[in-house]
Amino acid sequence: MGAQWEQIRAGEILTAIEGEWSAGSPETIISRVSTDSRNIGEGSLFWALEGERFDGHDYAEQAVEKGAAGVVVRQGYEGLSGIEKQPVVIVVQDTLKALGDLASWWRHQHHVAVAAITGSAGKTTTKEMTAEILAIGSRTLKNQGNFNNLVGLPLTLFSLDEGHRRAVLEMGMNHPGEIGRLTEIADPDVGLITNVAKAHLEGVGSIEGVARAKLELMEKASPGSRIILNGDDALLMKTASGFGKKAITFGMGEGNDIRAEGVKTLGRDGIIFNLCYQGDTTQVRLRVPGLQNVFNALAAASIALCLDESRKDILQGLDRFQGIEGRFAVSSLPGGATLVDDTYNANPASLKVALDSLEHLIARGGKIIVGLGEMLELGEETIPAHIEAGGMVAGLGAAHLLAMGEHAPEMIEGALEKGLPAERAVRVHTHEDMVNRIRDLMEGRDLIFLKGSRRIGLDKVAEGLRAKQGG
Q1: pLDDT single digits (tens) 379-395
Q2: Longest CA span, the chain
Q3: For 341-388, what is the HEC assignment?
Q4: Rounded mean pLDDT, 173-177
Q5: Are 305 and 446 contained in the same domain?
Q6: Starting at the edge strand that comes first in sequence, how are the strands of the sheet with 32-34 ordered?
Q7: At what angle do helices 178-186 and 95-108 cross, to 10 degrees?
Q8: Which is more confident, 363 or 183?
Q9: What 8-state DSSP symbol labels residue 175?
Q10: What is the CATH number of the domain that holds 173?
Q11: Angle at the Cα of 359 from the Cα atoms of 357 and 365, rounded to 5 degrees
C-alpha cells in the first residue's frame, strides 16, 4: 500500500470517485491535487470548487495554462475550448463531494492510524498536544492552520505518504451534517469530542443542536473505532446515550475512565496534575497555564492511550507542548505588564474558562484590564450572551473593560449591571484605539486579557501592545 503523487495516473483518480472521463489520457501522471489556481504546479490536478464568493470553474483555463495536467469540473462545464494543450478532464456531479471521496480513498491507501477531534472549544490545542505525543514514536500528520473543514481536511489527507503512521485531524463545523461527512472521509480509528457549548448557533439553532452536530462523529464512525467523550459535559453525555454506543470518558469526575486529580497551578510556569487511568497514577507537567489546558491534556492523553502509546511518550509530549499563538498565550509586554493573548476565537463557554484561569496569573498589586471583541454566530443567544460576557468580566474583579464590535453596548451593559463603574467600561471602535487606551491604563504589574471572535481581529491589538512605543 501507499499511493504516491508523481506516480499515480489520472485513470486511478476516476476509480476512487463517481465521475466520467471527458478528455485527456488516463496515463497522465498527477503530481498533486490543488483547489487554488494561484498555486498550481506542473502536473497538478486542479479541482474546481464552488463557494459563496468564488467559483473555481472560472479559473480552470488559467490553471491549465500554468501547467495543470488536468481538471475536475462539474457537469455542464464547457470551458477549456480555447486551450491548445489537451488536459485531462474529469466531470463529476458535485466537485466538493468528489474531493472528499478521493481523500477518503487516499486515506485508505496508507497504513496509518487516524485520530479525529471535534468540539466547541479546545480542538486545536488538543490536536497539537496529541501530535506532540504521537510524533515521538511515529511520523505524524496534522491539520495546518484552519484546514479543518470539507476542503481543508481532504487537502490535509492528500499529504499522507508511505512514511506516516499517525494522523491527527481537527474537525470544525458550522452546520448540521458537516461533522458526519468529515467522519466519513477521515474514517478515524479514534474519535474525540472535547465539549459542547454555545458556538455556531446560527447554523444549528441551539446548544442541543450543537451536541447533535458534534455527535455525528459517534454516529458515523466505523464500528471498530473508539469514541472518547468529555464525561463532565452533561449535555454531551445525555445526547450521546441515545446512540447506544460505548464510549471512553475523560474529565475531572471520579466516574471518568481517564481523569485528573491533584491539579496544582504554577502561575505562568504551567500546571501539575495526576493522570489516572486503569488504577495507575502518573504526574503530568504542563508548561502552559490555564485550567482549560488540563482538559486539553486529558483529551490528548486519552487519544494516545487508545492508540497504545506509552506513558513515557505521553508525559514527554505534554511536557514539550509550548502553547499556540492566540490561544491563552502568556507573554510580557514592554514595561513589565503581562499579556494573555486569547484572540484566536471566542464563545461564551471558552470566555468563562479563560476568565476563571486569570486569577492564577495576576501579580500582587496589579490590576486586570480586559479587551473584548464581540462573539459571532450565536443566533438568538447573541444579546444575552454579550450581556453575560460583560457581567463575567465585572465579576472577575477587572478594573477596566474595553469592548469592541456591534454588540459592545451589551457587553458594557452586563458589566455595569454587575457593578463595574461606567467610566471603566468603555466602547472602542478601532484596534488602534484599544491599543492606545490600554497603554494609557496599564502599569508594570498589570494583567491584560484579550479575547474575541477571529473576524474581530483583536490579534492586531496584541501585536500593537507587544510593539515598542514609537517603534
Answers
A1: 899 999 999 999 999 99
A2: 74
A3: EECCCCCHHHHHHHHHHHCCCCCCCCCEEEEEECCCCCHHHHHHHHHH
A4: 92
A5: no
A6: 20-23, 88-92, 70-74, 44-47, 32-34
A7: 40
A8: 183
A9: S
A10: 3.40.1190.10
A11: 155
Does some domain include residue 402? yes
Identify the residue whose cell numbers are 472521463.
21
Question: Predicted confidence band at 82 (pLDDT cuts at 50, 70, 90)?
Answer: low
The pLDDT-based confidence of 203 (bands split at 50, 70, 90) is confident
> What is the distance between the alpha carbons of residues 191 and 179, in angstroms, rounded to a whole number?
11
Could you tell me if 347 and 198 are in contact, meaning their C-beta atoms sit under 8 angstroms apart? yes
Which residue spans within 113-184 are E strands per DSSP? 113-118, 140-142, 166-170
For residues 73-87, average pLDDT: 83
Residues 296 and 345 reside in one and the same domain: no
Residue 211 and residue 230 share a domain: yes
Residue where one domain finishes, among candidates 320, 339, 358: 320
Confidence of residue 244 (pLDDT cuts 50, 70, 90): confident
The domain that holds 82 is classified in CATH as 3.40.1390.10
Tell me which DSSP letter residue 280 carries: E
The grid coordinates listed for 105 are 480513498
pLDDT band (50, 70, 90) for residue 52: confident
Query: Which among 271, 291, 320 is the end of a domain?
Result: 320
How many domains does the chain contain in total? 3
Indicate the helix (H) or strand (E) that contains 104.
Answer: helix 95-108
Considering the domain architecture, whether residues 132 and 268 belong to the same structural domain is answered as: yes
| pLDDT 10s digits, 401-413 | 999 999 999 999 9
Reported pTM: 0.93
Q: What is the pLDDT of residues 271-288, one digit of tens each?
A: 999 999 999 999 999 999
| Cross-strand pairs, 250 | 230, 258
Confidence tier at 163 by pLDDT (50, 70, 90): very high
Tell me, yes or no, whether 284 and 217 share the same domain.
yes
Same structural domain, 280 and 341: no
Q: If you ran DSSP here, which 8-state letter would residue 168 be given?
A: E
In the prediction, which pLDDT does 471 show? 43
Residue 392, domain extent: 329-466
Residues 139 and 265 placed together within one structural domain of the fold: yes
User: Quick one: how far is CA 163 from the chain centroid?
Assistant: 25
Domain-located, residue 170: yes
Query: Coil, strand or helix: which one is 465?
Result: helix
Instruction: Give a yes or no: residue 2 inside a domain.
Output: no
Do 193 and 245 lie in a common domain? Answer: yes
Instruction: Enumerate residues 6+ apart whose C-beta is below 8 A from 52.
Output: none
Alpha carbon 49 to chain centroid distance? 22
CB 345 within 8 A of CB 363: no
d(CA 256, CA 21): 53
Establish if 121 belongs to a structural domain: yes
Question: Mean of the per-residue pLDDT values for the chain?
Answer: 94
